[in-house]
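JOB MANIFEST
job_type = single_chain_structure
chain_count = 1
residues = 102
[input]
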Amino acid sequence: MLAPAIVDEVLRALAYPTVRKLLRGADAQLWFEDLVVLADLVAGAQQLSGVCKNPDDDKYVAAALEGRATFVVTGDRAFLALKEPAGVEILTPRVFLDLLGS
């Protein structure tokens, strides 16, 4: 699920000089725009506060709830420590892929 606040955050991050250097000339913004077209978008009407240790992460749980998602997949250790905020299970990419394969 993607909400407008998530799309904005990713586009801002892709413009950071350090990120652009890591991408070695790849057009990450164009790639992300292609991904947005394929994603399930939510309006961003669901608002949460204080669910995550990092307040900036609340928007990911809110988007998952608004879109009725079962999982949020991340490698962020602080986010993973939440386990299941508001009924949304937080998984590593490896665990998620294993779940898909079973």
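[summary]
The mean pLDDT is 91.
The chain has six helices and two strands.
exit_status = 0
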